[in-house]
Design goal:
There is one protein chain. The protein has 130 residues and is of the alpha/beta class. The protein has a single domain, classed as Rossmann fold (3-Layer(aba) Sandwich), CATH 3.40.50. Strands 2-1-3-4 form a four-stranded parallel beta sheet, with helices on both faces. Helix 1 links the parallel strand 1 and strand 2. The longest helix has 14 residues. It is globular.
Length: 130
């Protein structure tokens, strides 16, 4: 099963979105990193790096982020992976709520990482080059 990481500047936002995703796709592993190390608004590279390293598995990891520094921390963690693990991670530059819900439902239905990446690459507002 594909893993999903929500990387947000807000712990409340990340946990709230996780709650929605779990209700929509209860058998998908939804991970969150929200806020900085001290629980304030911000992004936590160490936590993001640990999650990405642990969940960049054969099933795959799709990452959604809210703001630029969350994206940068995710990208730095991905860049540090070996090529095999990198091939199992996709950083989505799509709207965090809408597409994370859609991808969680697709993953819950057994959709492959390849099909999910194909869909996200064709998403009209995807701003990242993977």
């Amino acid at each position: 099963m594909i893993n999903i990481l929500i990387a947000s500047h807000s712990k409340k936002l990340a946990e709230g979105l996780r709650e929605i995703l779990i209700q929509m796709a209860p058998n998908v592993n939804i991970l969150v990193s929200g806020g900085d190390k001290d629980g304030n608004i911000g992004s936590n590279f160490d936590e993001i790096n640990q999650i990405i390293n642990e969940y960049a598995t054969n099933d795959g990891l799709v990452i959604f982020f809210d703001l630029g520094s969350s994206m940068m921390n995710c990208q730095m963690a991905i860049d540090m992976l070996d090529n095999e693990k990198k091939s199992k991670v996709y950083l989505a530059g799509t709207p965090i709520v809408e597409t994370s819900v859609q991808i969680a439902v697709e993953a819950s239905a057994g959709q492959s990482l390849e099909k999910i990446v194909e869909y996200l690459n064709e998403y009209p507002v995807n701003k990242l080059e993977n």
